[in-house]
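Lecture notes, continued. The same structure-token format from the folding unit now serves as the input rather than the output. Read the line below as a description of shape only.
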């Protein structure tokens, strides 16, 4: 299913001026269990990768990247405290995003990558990859993608990893997408907006990201999702030349 239903995001409320209870469960997007809003902050359980994520969010703040939550510390229940970002988050992928919004998303990803390039966190890699660049991990304001969140999968890596996976998640590629010529046009739009010059390995990277997702969803018991991703992989293997930019 690729339809987008706009709902309050992890970092947003319908009316910021309305009276709020002490803790408000956040239901937008694909929420990590236990995420709540407390005033103008978000409280979130810590996990094995939290220390790296906290360092990443601190780095983004230090370099002036404003399009991600701020890490504010740990509360008295051992949960991380993040700044609350106004906006909306879809609860699924969206087949109807305009060219302008797709280009906005690619440029947002480029700004994030540029903010991490050359950092100690990236190490010998090009950037710190988000690794789940998706509309459901993006805050929208007035229909425009404006901020990223959910950095739990962030790791050092090459830019092409995020560019390729994000491209699949944002552009409605695959067997249930538009005709191949339209998919090719959208891929060119995405790459142009990001500023990706070398596209020679792009389709191989897309297929690898989808292949990894098949394995991950099979491993976590999501059989229906794994089948959907497998069908996408098979379609891409048959049509990769037709949609290559």
């Amino acid at each position: 299913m690729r339809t987008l239903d706009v709902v309050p995001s992890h970092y947003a409320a319908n009316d910021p001026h309305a009276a709020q209870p002490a803790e408000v469960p956040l239901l937008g997007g694909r929420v990590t269990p236990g995420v709540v809003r407390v005033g103008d902050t978000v409280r979130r359980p810590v996990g094995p990768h939290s220390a790296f994520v906290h360092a990443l969010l601190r780095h983004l703040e230090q370099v002036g990247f404003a399009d991600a939550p701020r890490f504010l510390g740990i509360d008295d229940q051992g949960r991380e405290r993040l700044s609350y970002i106004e906006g909306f988050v879809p609860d699924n992928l969206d087949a109807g995003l305009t060219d302008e919004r797709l280009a906005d998303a690619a440029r947002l990803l480029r700004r994030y990558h540029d903010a991490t390039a050359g950092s100690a966190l990236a190490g010998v890699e090009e950037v710190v990859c988000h690794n789940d660049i998706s509309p459901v991990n993006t805050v929208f304001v007035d229909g425009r993608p404006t901020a990223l969140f959910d950095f739990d999968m962030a790791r050092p890596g090459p830019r092409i990893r995020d560019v390729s996976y994000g491209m699949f998640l944002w552009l409605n590629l695959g067997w249930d997408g538009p005709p191949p010529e339209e998919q090719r046009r959208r891929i060119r739009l995405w790459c142009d907006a990001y500023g990706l010059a070398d596209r020679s390995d792009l389709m191989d990277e897309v297929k690898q990201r989808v292949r990894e997702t098949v394995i991950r969803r099979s491993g976590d018991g999501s059989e229906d999702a794994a089948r959907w991703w497998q069908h996408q992989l098979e379609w891409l293997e048959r049509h990769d030349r037709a949609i290559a930019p």
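Point for the exam: The chain has two domains: 6-83, 91-243.
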